[in-house]
Amino acid sequence: MIIQKNTFALLIISASLFFSTHALLEIPVKFDIKENSILFNTTYGTDNCRIEAKADFFYCNNEIDFIRTGLRKLQTCGAVRVGTTRKSDFEANFQMGNFDARVVFSQYNTIENLNLTFFTQSLCFGKVTNDQEQLSLVKQLHQEGLISQPRVYITFFNRYLQSFTLNDIIGQINLGEPNPEFIKKGSNFVKMYVDPDQKYVYDCQFYSNGESTYFGQKISGYKQYSINFDQAISSIDLDTFEQMLAILNERGYKITVSGIGIFKEYFINTIEGLEPIKITLLTEDMSPYILTINASVYTQKIEEGVHKLMFKAIRDNRSYQIGNQILTSYYFAYDANTQNTFFAERAQDLNPYQVDQKAENFSQYLRSKKI
Ligand SMILES: *[C@@H]1O[C@H](CO)[C@@H](O)[C@H](O)[C@H]1NC(C)=O
Ligand SMILES: *[C@@H]1O[C@H](CO)[C@@H](O)[C@H](O)[C@H]1NC(C)=O
Ligand SMILES: *[C@@H]1O[C@H](CO)[C@@H](O)[C@H](O)[C@H]1NC(C)=O
Ligand SMILES: *[C@@H]1O[C@H](CO)[C@@H](O)[C@H](O)[C@H]1NC(C)=O
Ligand SMILES: *[C@@H]1O[C@H](CO)[C@@H](O)[C@H](O)[C@H]1NC(C)=O
After folding, report:
1. Is residue 94 included in any domain, yes or no?
2. Nearest listed ligand to the Cα of residue 65
3. How would you classify residue 337: left for phi > 0, otherwise alpha for psi between -120 and 50, otherwise beta?
4. Who lines ligand 4 at CB under 6 A?
5. Would the CB of 117 count as within 6 Å of ligand 1?
6. Is residue 191 located within the same domain as residue 63?
7. Comparing 353 with 21, which gets the higher pLDDT?
C-alpha cells in the first residue's frame, strides 16, 4: 500500500516536473494577407467548434462576433454565459496550439448593439487598460496558473507573408516562457525601458534616446517606437525618409517612385551593400541597446533589379511603427502586466517544419496524458 502511494506520489512529482520544465505553450500562427492579421486555429466548447482567431496586440479584448459565429452556435458549441459585469460575456474551453484553457470572452455583436461593417474574433495578447472592460488571454492564462508570467513571445519564420496561404504556418507565439530554440546563440532577451510617469503607454511600445543612424550617418530619430504586427511595411516620417533617400542617392543607388501622395511606393535597383538602420533603444536601466533593422527587413524583392523599400512615408514626427518583418530577425516579447518589451536576436537557421512537428509531438503527448 505504502509503496503504491509513494509510486503514485513520484508519478505526480515527475509529471509536474515535466510540466514545469517542458510545458512550453506554443501557438503556430498564420497570416491573412487580405485582412492583414495574424491568425491562429482554435477550437472551443464541448463540440470543438472551430474558429480562426486574430492574435491582437493593440487595445484588444477577447471578443468574438456572433454574426460570424452565430449566437445559436455559441451555445450549441458549449460556450456558457458568465456572470461578469457585462451580460455579453461567455466562457468556454479553448484548444489552441499545444494546450487548452478556459477562456472568458465577450460577444462583439449583440442584437441590441449591431455593427454590420465590422467583424472580429480576436484573442488579446496586448495591454488591457481596464480589466473590468477588456479581457486579456495572457492575463487569464496567468491567473489560471498555466503560465508563470503574463508574457507573450512572438517570431515569424518567413518574411514573404504574401506568398503563404492560410494553411501555412508563418510563425509562432509562445506564452509565459520563450522557446529557447528561437534565440540566437549568444543572444539573450533584453528588457526595455518603460516610462513610469507616462500614464498612457501604447501597447508594445519601446523608447529611444532619439539616436538613429543609416550608413553610419545620423538620421532623425524618435523617442518612441512600436511594432505594427499586422503590416509588413513600416511607417516613417517623410523628413526622415528623405534623409535616407539622400544617403542612398549619394551612394549611387537608383530609386524609382510610383503612385502619388500617401500611396507612393519606392523601389531600389539593388540591395547589394545596403546597410542596416540602427536605432538606439533604452533598456530597463536606461543603457543603450542597438536595434538593427537589416535590409532583409526593410526591402522586399519584387523582381530582378526591383526591390521595394518597405516604408510608408507620412508627415508625423511623433512615432515610428516598425513593420512586422522585424519579427523575422528578432524574437519579441511583451509583458501585459508591466508593459515592458523585450528583444532577443533570432536564431537564423530555423526549420519551420521541424518546429511544427515538435509542437505536434508535444500536443500528442498532452492529449495522451489527458484522461
Ligand atoms: C463598426 O465598428 C467599426 C470599428 O470599430 C467602426 O469604425 C464603425 O464606425 C462601426 N460602425 C457602426 C455602424 O457602429
Ligand atoms: C490550421 O488547421 C488546418 C486544418 O487542420 C491545418 O492544415 C493548418 O496547418 C493549421 N494552421 C495553423 C497555422 O495552425
Ligand atoms: C514635430 O513637428 C512639429 C510640427 O512640424 C514641430 O513643432 C516639432 O518640434 C517636431 N518635433 C520634433 C521632435 O522634431
Ligand atoms: C543583420 O544582418 C547581419 C549580416 O547578415 C547579421 O549578421 C545580423 O545577425 C543581422 N541582424 C539581425 C538583428 O537580424
Ligand atoms: C516527432 O515524433 C516522430 C514519431 O514519434 C519522430 O519520428 C520525430 O522525430 C519527432 N519529431 C521531432 C521534431 O521531435
Report:
1. yes
2. 1
3. alpha
4. 276, 292, 294, 329-330, 345
5. yes
6. no
7. 353
Q: Is 138 helix (H, G, I), strand (E, B) or coil?
A: helix
Rounded distance from Cα 193 to ligand 5 centre (Å): 40
Q: For residues 99 and 231, state if they share a domain.
A: no
Q: Same domain, yes or no, for 202 and 330?
A: yes
Per-residue pLDDT of 281-299, as tens digits, reads: 999 999 999 999 999 999 9
- Phi/psi for 230 (5° steps) reads -100, -5
* pLDDT tens, position by position, 240-276: 999 999 999 999 999 999 998 778 999 999 999 999 9
**CATH number, residue 142:** 2.40.70.10
Amino acid 42: pLDDT: 94
CA of 17 to the centre of ligand 5 (A): 22
Q: What's the structural domain count of the chain?
A: 2
340 in the same domain as 196? yes
Domain span at residue 74 reads: 25-181+350-366
Task: Report the nearest-CA residue for atom 2 of ligand 2.
Answer: 41
Residues 171 and 254 in one domain: no
Among the listed residues 326, 323, 322, the one whose alpha carbon sits nearest the alpha carbon of residue 294? 326
Look at residue 222 and give its three-state secondary structure.
Answer: coil
Q: Determine whether the shortest distance from the Cβ of 115 to ligand 1 is under 6 A.
A: yes
The residue whose C-alpha atom lies closest to atom 12 belonging to ligand 4 is 329
The residue count for the chain: 371
Q: Do residue 224 and residue 295 come from a single domain?
A: yes
CA of 165 to the centre of ligand 5 (A): 25
Please say if the pLDDT value at position 220 is more than 80.
yes
151: Cβ contacts below 8 Å, ≥ 6 apart = 138, 175, 176, 177, 333, 334, 335, 336
pLDDT at 128 over 60: yes
pLDDT digits (tens, 9 = 90+) for 5-34: 444 444 444 444 444 444 789 999 999 988
Beta strand 190-191 pairing with 341-345: antiparallel
Same-domain check for residues 174 and 192: no
- Nearest residue (by CA) to ligand 5, atom 13, is 358
The region of weakest confidence among 155-159, 175-179, 222-226 is: 155-159
Does residue 145 share a domain with residue 105? yes
Atom of ligand 4 nearest to the CA of 293: 13
